[in-house]
Amino acid sequence: PVEVAIVSVGDDGGSAASSSTPLGEDKVGEIWVRSASKAQGYWGMPDKSADDFGATLIGGSTTFLRTGDLGFLHGGELFICGRLKDLIILRGRNHYPQDIERCVEGASSLFRAGRSAAFAVSSGNEEQIAVVVELKAKQNRATCQSLVADIRASLSKEQGVQIGVCYLCKDHTVPITTSGKIARSWCKRNYDAGTFETIYEWQDDASGAAEEAKNGGSDGELADDDEAGVDQEPVSQADIDLLLQLPDEELLAKLIEDTADVVALPAESLREQTGVALVTLGLDSLGLAQMKQMLELQYGCPVPDDWMYFDTTTLEEVLVAVRMGGVTEEQAADGRPLEIQVDPDGGNKLLQTCPCLLMCCPKLVLG
After folding, report:
1. Looking at the record, which segments are called Disordered (predicted)?
2. Residues 279 and 265 sit within 8 Å (Cβ to Cβ)
3. pLDDT at residue 335, as a whole number
4. Residues of the chain with confidence (pLDDT) below 70
5. How many CB atoms lie within 10 A of CB 155?
6. Residue 223, domain member (yes or no)
7. Which of 47, 105, 145, 319 is deepest in the core (most CB within 10 A)?
């Protein structure tokens, strides 16, 4: 018989400790196993053997083999999720490369199925997600730029992640193993060595790097991309009053453009998802904090930290918050959508600054 234990994964991508408490059912972690056929260790590698073959559960004395595989138990059965070394951990959140790769390949029929890789790369003091994907045939620069935008939008919408690097590669150049699986560690080495055969390269400007086109050897200048983390300066109350005079459609458009600039997401993707919760748009904790600062400094709209994470907090809801001049702790306490109380006699300041508000804003309550 084989004894199986699932243990938690640490922030560094390894097991939480060489001694750990097993997780319950439906919890993903590293798979530890023990049986009569477990080896003693590696020849001539005592330290490595102790780490991999000598793991123990807290309160126990028997040793387990750390498989390096991720999985979970459900209904007494073991399900494999992937390899621990391939797991991408950014700001405490786990990202599975298989999910990212499937999303990337589904963004366009021009990509080769099963020939993409996602992995973590360093950028200054932070890590970013890099993706490489094969094109079935060479494309011009405009098409490649559009494809990268599609990838970023799909990952933002479906996986809630942002990427820092995207390489569109020549056919049959993304490394695979002898069994036909994507060799992510080889891809990482190729990226570090700069040896990928690319048709087009894109890197987030926020990392200090610029995107580069390699179509036919042309070195044409590329359009500017979104920047994240830019310094934000407060605007005057007079400027805020002018903003509030805009119809909802125009004010929402400006919110979208400003948000795209601050958090480095494609504006087109945001326009298509104004009713989607911010937390599912690819905004992590840093992006939400930057957006909160933008609302306070540029729109005079202070909001509680927790409110940015609510499932009801969408771009449309942000528009309502801006019209209200902010959100109080009491208003955000129950997590319900905001409601603007409007004076039917016309005394409300919101109606004075935006006469069309009753027609264009769906979340008004008369009374």
Report:
1. 207-229
2. no
3. 67
4. 1, 8-19, 205-232, 280, 282, 284-285, 334-335, 339-367
5. 25
6. no
7. 319
Residue/partner pairs of 179-186 with CB below 8 Å, 24 or more apart: 180/114, 182/101, 182/114, 182/115, 182/116, 182/117, 183/117, 184/86, 184/97, 184/117, 184/118, 184/119, 185/85, 185/119
Q: What is the residue range of 348's domain?
A: 237-366
How far is it, in rounded angstroms, from Cα 101 to Cα 117? 6
pTM for the whole structure: 0.58
Number of separate domains in the chain: 3
Residue that finishes a domain, picked among 84, 118, 148: 84
Q: Same structural domain for residues 295 and 331?
A: yes
Domain shared by 290 and 325, yes or no:
yes
User: Where is 78: in which H helix or E strand?
Assistant: strand 77-83
Q: Is the dihedral of CA 246, 252, 258, 262 positive or negative?
A: positive
Q: What is the CATH number of the domain that holds 101?
A: 3.30.300.30
